[in-house]
Amino acid sequence: MVREEPPGGPGRLLQERRDRRRRSQRRQGLKLVFLKSRRRRQHRVWVWLCVLEANDGCCVYCGGASETMDHVIPFSDGGADDSSNLVPACHRCNRQKGDKTPAELYIGWDLRHRWSGKGTAQKSDTSGLCLRDMYLSVHEGVLGLLDDLDTVAAEIADPKRRSWFLRETPGNYPYDLCVGWYRACYAEKVAKAKAEGWPDMTPEWLRRSST
Question: What is the per-residue pLDDT across 194-203, written as a single tens digit (0 to 9) for each?
């Protein structure tokens, strides 16, 4: 005699779990197809200089000298590949950040220095703090980092500043190794323009034609 399983029994729950897993795998598969179809663009010289010279030419994460551009929302996770999602960073921070968001990076840094990895989630063997307490204490630091990112993003997006870099620095596509050379060539010019409040370099004839 075969017993019929009552509605809502273990078999149904197991099938629902399998269905959820298949739906999740399909979504992940579609996401991977989308991400693999994307290609990083090769940014022009003026974009590189516009981003790298923001934040006084310093890495937005550690304050060291900027050396490269970092995608705030990782490109590998669907982040935009344009100046609205780019900030100046050093190579070390860019490598450590990888495919993490700024919040994940900051929290990881903080816990790496203050959490020994031993004890339990309720109590560290060294500090005596639980993970909840440590996260709450780092919350203000994350908000501070996000404020800094907003400030740098606003500086990069400033129309007068962008217009100056577009008109006064090369527009060709560089090899990544040439970026440092371009920065050195235009360092004095950039510093002077910044001190003058990014003067409008639009040619006079173009100004007249736009009025």
Answer: 999 999 988 7
What pTM does this model have?
Answer: 0.73
The mean pLDDT of 124-138, rounded to a whole number, is 69
CA distance 31 to 184: 41
Total Cβ atoms within 10 A of residue 165: 26
Tokens representing residue 152 in the block: 């740098």
Greater model confidence, 205 or 52 = 52
Of 111, 77, 78, 106, give the one whose Cα is nearest residue 93: 106
CB 86 within 8 A of CB 49: no
What span, in angstroms and rounded, lies between the C-alpha atoms of 162 and 82? Answer: 13
Query: Around Cβ 90, how many Cβ atoms within 10 Å?
Result: 20
Mean of the per-residue pLDDT values of the chain: 82
Matching residue, tokens 């590949």: 81
Instruction: List Cβ neighbours of 165 (8 Å cut-off, separation of 6 or more).
Output: 46, 47, 49, 50
Question: For the chain, what is the radius of gyration of the CA atoms?
Answer: 25
Q: Which of 35, 43, 30 is nearest to 81 (CA)?
A: 43
